[in-house]
Each structure stands twice: as C-alpha cells, then as structure tokens.
Batch of 2 targets.
Target 1
Amino acid sequence: MNNKHIFLFFLFFVTTSSFSQAIKDNLILFYPFNNNLSDQSGNQNHGINNGVKFSADRFYINKSSTDFNGSSDFIELPNIAALKPDFPFAISFWVLFYENPDVPKYIFRSDNYDNAYSGFWIGLTTSGQLSTGYGDGAGKGFENRYSKYSNKILELNYWHNIVVSFNSTDSIKIFIDCKLEKGSLSGGAYSLNNLGYSGAIGKSFNRFFKGKIDDLRLYSKEIKQKDIPYLCYENPYFTDTISVTDTLFIDVTFTGTFEQETIQTIKVYPNPAKKIIYIDSGKGFTDISNYSIKIITSEGQIIYKSKINSKILHVDVDKFMKTGLYLIQILNKEGQLVEVRKLVLN
C-alpha cells in the first residue's frame, strides 16, 4: 500500500480518559461558544456579541466556534475586576487565523483602551508570530509594556491550541500546540495595571481579528507544563481513544419502527492487499439508507462522501488519501453529525 499503514481509532463515550476533562480549578471564565456566548465556568461572565457569527469548530461541528470578519466583529467582556486578574493567571483557547494582519491584531485584551498599553493581551504579529504582553497603563511607549513573542510562525487556516501563563512580571510562558515556546522578549514595563475599560475578544486599538476562536478559558492560576495535555488534547465530544488495528465498529442509534431507538453497527476495516478500506453497514443498511458518510482531512477537506446506499462501500486509499489524520463522519438524514471516528495513515 505504498508503505501506508492504516490505524483505526475507536473513540468511546466514557469518562476514564486521563485527558478527557480540562482543568477546572481557579477557572474564571469559560466560553465553549456553542452557538452562544454563555460563560460555563459557573461565574455568569457572559459575553456581549457585536456581530460575531458562529461556525464549525475543529471537529467540524456546526455553530460551535466563533467566526470574526476582521472589520467590525468583536465580543465585549463584562467590565469586572475578576476578568482583570493579577499574577499569576493564564488563558487557553483554540484559534484559526485566516490571514497574517497588515498591522498587529489582538485576540484577547483585558482592558480595551486605545491610548495606552494597559491590562494584558494576546495577538498576532504581521509575520505570523503569537504576541503576548501586559501594560502599566501609563502610556503607549516601549517602556509601558512587557511583551513576549513566539518563535513559531503560526500556520494559517489551521486550528492551533494556545496556552499563555502569565506567572509574574518577568515570566510569561507560551505553549503552542502542546509545546513550550522559548520566545523573545521586548519592552520595559514592570507592573500590570488595568484602567477600568471593558475587555474584548477580537478587538483592540480599534483593530479587528480575522479568524475563528473556540473553547476560551481564563484562570486565576499558573498553568504548568504538566497541565498542558489536559487543554491541548481536550476533546469535548469524545473522552477516550483505543487503538484498533483491524476492524472499527461504529454504533449508530436511530429511530426505527414504532418510534423505538435502534442501533445499527457500521464496520470499517482495511484490506492492505487491495489498497482499500471497506465500510460495511451490515444487513440492515436500508434502515439508515438516508444517512451519509464522509471522510475529511484534518484541514477540513472532504476527500470522500457517499450516501449509505449499499451494504459495503469501498474507499481506494491510494486514490483518495495521503499519510495523515482523517475523520470519518456519520450524518443523519437531516445532515446532522451523529458520530465521528479517527483514521490515521502513516
């Protein structure tokens, strides 16, 4: 199979995974962005929408992330002291950038004042680096801010996990896609001051972010290296992963005769000799013939799509697929996603 090895990962709906639950201690704010701006931390710090739309998230679930147009959209935060913490504190989120901005733009800012560096912020430079920092509120000069920039250039149109831990006036740690960044420092401020202005997501200095944001959390604590897997490997839909090397079983629940719930098992298995993946919907495939199946790349490109209109579907691995991560999606007759599984070729 041109040295491609097929691994099927079965993701169970259970609660035993080491990394299934994100950190909840000292959680000030949590926006999962599930078609609303409700704070799920329990602190009622709900956001105020200023034109932001809801879009598909990194798992391709519709209306499960925020989508900013880069010209006017932003989320206003409640103007309360709890959302302007002092050291140590940390912020975590997923982000997808549509473009490198022509001027630095901001993803999050705790004190949205245009005429001074105040509060803390996270943004993107014109060269595609992540920028973080805080300001003393006394002006807009080099000496009024303390900034740290990632060495890594963030790939566009790709979901990245970002964790920034503001530990003290001279210690900011940046984690991108689970890895600690060495980064570079700039500025001369030695104190963090908020000037009493509302914070914002997607706007600062009258500049607007263009891209998507999801699962944003703010903590009143330091996030340490050992905590990172709980955030960057978090999957809110699936909570455990078990490797299956031969056959993947996908149980699809649907409403059958007499309005009773019925389970139809779909089997996915490889045939290395014929360079084919079989998708077997079983003898009862007619019961889910109005369902469909998709195979999608990690970048969101659909490389296979079919109605479940026969007992066995064939996917030519060499024709459609290169090495990498893929998602197998099962959609019901309304086009709603009901099951997702991972497929890895290497």
Target 2
Amino acid sequence: MRVLRFLEMAHDYSYEQQPMLNSTLDRHYRSIQRLGAGFGQNYLSGDLYLSGGKLQSMMRQRQGGSAGGHLIWLQRGDELIQSQRHREALMCYEKASNANPDNHFIWFKQAMALEGLRRYEEAIALYTRVTEVTPEDYLVWFKQGKAYEHVQRYESALAAYDRGIALQPSNYWSWNDRGRVLECLERYEEAQAAYQQALQIKSDFKLAIEGKARAVRKLAEQQAKVQAQPHQVIHWLMYGLDMEELEQYEVAIAAYSQVVQALPENHQVWLRRGELLEKLACYEDALASYEQVVRLCPENYQVWCLHGQVLETLARPEEAALSYRRATRLKPDFQLAIDKLKQLVSMSDRPPSSPLTLIDHAA
C-alpha cells in the first residue's frame, strides 16, 4: 500500500479520532517495525516500502549485526498500540529503550504512545530528541507538528511543518497542515497560499479545496472587520507598547498577536513580538516571528542576524551560519554577523564537506 494514499485516508479523521488513527498508522507500518528499521525516509522510497531484505540489512548496520533483545519489547509494544492499549505499549517501549537507550527509533515509538495517552508535552520532548539526531527525517517533523497542534502551540507547529516541507516540498499533506495551522493563527492570506501549494501538487485534494475556500472567506471577513473598526488595531498596538514599557511582556505579546492577526504584513509588529518572545526564552515562537520579518523584508540584514542568533540558541548552527552569511552579504561590514559567523566556524568540529566548512570558505 502506498504511504501517501494511507495518509490521505488518515487525515479524514477528526482530532477526537486521533488515537484510532495512530493505531491504524502503526498497523500499516508493523511489518517494517518488526524488522526494527528506522522510520521516515529510512523506510520510504518514492512513497513505497523498501524490501524486507534491504530493511534487515539496514537494521544490521544500525545495530552492529545483532538484532538485540529490545526488538521483542518493540514488537510487543506495536501489538499493544494496535489495540489502543497505549499505556501498556509505552511500558514495552520503555523496556526496549532501557535495553537500547541510544536508539532514536524507539524514542519515536515512545512519543507516538505518549500521543495516544494525550501526554503531548512529553511526546513533543521525545520528538525533539529525535530531530536532534535525525533532522533530515521529514516524518518526525510532521508528527512533532501534530503534537504541537494538540496543545495549541501553533507557532511551534508551523515551524515543525516548515522543516518537514523543506525536506519534502512535494508533500501536499504537509502544505495542507501548514494551511490549517495558519488558519488557527488567523493568518488567512498565508493559509490560502499554503492550500494553493497543496492543490498545485494534487489538484483534486478535497481538504485543500475546502481549506482554501474557508481561508478566502475568513480573510474577507477579517479585512471587513479591520476596515470597520480600525481603532481596535490601534488600541491593541498602543496597549502592547504600554505593557512592553512596564515589562509585562506576556501581555504585550498577546496584544501584538492581535495586531498581526489583523495586519499580517506589518513587519515592525512581528519584529517587536519576536524580540519579546526571545526575552522570555520562547525561542521557537521567536524564530517564527523573525521568519515573518525576513519574508516581508528580506533585505533587512539586522533581522537576519537576529534570526541566526535564535537558530544558534536552538542548537541549529548550520542554519544559523546561513543566516549570518545572508546578513554579511547584505552588509559586508556588519561586524556582529561577521564575528558570529567566525565564532560558529571556529567552534565547529566539522568534516571538510560540511555546510559550515563551505560557508567558511565562502566567507
């Protein structure tokens, strides 16, 4: 069975049906999981399963030629997940993890079980650990984005989906999910564009057709409301500035969020919002705000530097270096970005072909 076709059916489920969806997802992947293979791109090839022999070979390479006793607990956990016995499945995955604590595939399975138990924050923490080990696997970013949605951390969900889209830009489901999150953020113009991207890939994709129509309608309603009550936007802006001056940053952020919902193209408010989120150590959300600024003002070298600093804080040094490099291209004598870039390169234990090495030579 083709994986994308399965996902197509899976997304027809509501969030209340997600436990059943996760169970179904596991059932379709079970034959692969029993071999102990990795996930995401490790068992997908052009959205077809790899052969069992190839998977077994991958498993031997991953575990030094030995299947390991942890596979028994892993298989038992998969069987329990099918019956929606997520608590018992989690116990099995924990035993598997105890036997093989560095296996990020098991962390991924633990996270899925935690999602079934609606322990979303714990699931997010495990998905984050997996992305640190295999940042190139789009499926982990997809699942992390879903978990963020469950706890209404929409900015973080958007950032996760964007990472997945960067790895697999032809995945129309990811574009649809991006559109849905943007709707939750009341950023309807961007949501409309995301749904359109999904439809360019699959023109008869029903959810994207419906989502685009909904986003168009909500955008019109939003614009009409702003035109009818412009004083409300000014009120939120002034209130945010007052709260910022009083160092009531959480309140100020909420006020600025109201402004960008009504005026999503206002880069100055996105910038203020990002700086306050960074002060509160909400780095993923700050990054999402800065990304709005560089989208609207791609020639702003100072914001590219801020963007790089947040990426560096999030332990994403290669992306940070690219942002610093972008800043220095816009302003070659921008000393802060120059110093940051040199510091990153000097601190990196990197092979000759790594992105940081290439950036160093380009500088």
